[in-house]
Amino acid sequence: MSPLPRLQLAALDCPDPLALAEFYARVTGGEVEALGDLPAEKVTWIEMMTPEGTVLGFQKVDHYVVPTWPEGAVPQQLHLDFVVDDLDDGETHVLAVGATKASYQPGDTFRVYYDPVGHPFCLVLAK
Question: Residue 15's domain is classified under what CATH number?
């Protein structure tokens, strides 16, 4: 047994956990945790697992503030990277499922996008 902590998941604050989990499931081909008998409007926490086994959690925040990255008073708060084999193909996919391309693009081997509630994320070219 290792004494080192092991990362279990990353969680994103958002106004609607189910909607954001479904967005990232469309981005990755992942699966959103089953709701059971819980009505969607009562969801305050939900998890999504990618096909590779990475887990993202989504937590409802009543007074969620959209990040203003790269400028402004509200930092990015969290940043996710997704590896793709082709940046153009990856871009076509994430835009089709609801992402927005950031106007600020600081590199050549990755591209920055925003999810539907403003969290920045990148598509990174596989090495």
Answer: 3.10.180.10
pTM for the predicted model, two decimal places: 0.91
Quote the tokens at residue 3.
């004494």
State which amino acid sits at residue 105: Q
Give tens-digit pLDDT for 29-48. Answer: 999 999 888 888 889 999 99
Alpha carbon dihedral 44, 41, 51, 53, in 10-degree steps, equals 10
For residue 103, what are the domain limits? Answer: 80-125
Strand pairing of 55-60 and 80-84?
Answer: unpaired
Q: Is residue 68 part of a domain?
A: no
Q: How far apart are CA 114 and CA 121, in angstroms?
A: 6
**How many angstroms separate the CA atoms of 27 and 77, rounded?**
20
Separation of alpha carbons 25 and 20, rounded Å: 9
